[in-house]
Amino acid sequence: MNVKISWGGNAKFVGESGTGHKVTMDGPPDHGGQNLGPRPMEMLLLGLGGCTSFDVMSILKKSRQDVTDCVAEITAERADEVPSVFTKIHVHFIVKGNNLKENLVKRAVSLSAEKYCSASIMLEKAGVEITHDYIIEA
């Protein structure tokens, strides 16, 4: 897997994935940015959210669950000192669907957290406390 990050002036950077997709990252105005894109640390959380959401949906589809929507809301805390690493991350899933079985949703979230989500497992190995929960909505 390869990516390329190019400087776009001031605090702006453009990331390009190995598959050719581009994303603009930028800093806040008080750090020389123009707020034209997410911060790099926000991108890290977005990657984590995408990784675990992909797992949960894949597992639920294989379990033949009729999911109509899946949202992962992520909150994080960072250290006060530099480097301002993540210390705690919480992933809250809101799963919507028809006749969803709670035990299968719980299993999907657990399997992602404990076995499949490379991003969250990597962060946990680095010392980040990651918790997960979910609610089911009809």
From TrEMBL:
Gene3D superfamilies: 2.20.25.10, 3.30.300.20
Top-rank lineage group of the source organism: Bacteria
Pfam family, one: OsmC
The protein, known as: OsmC family protein
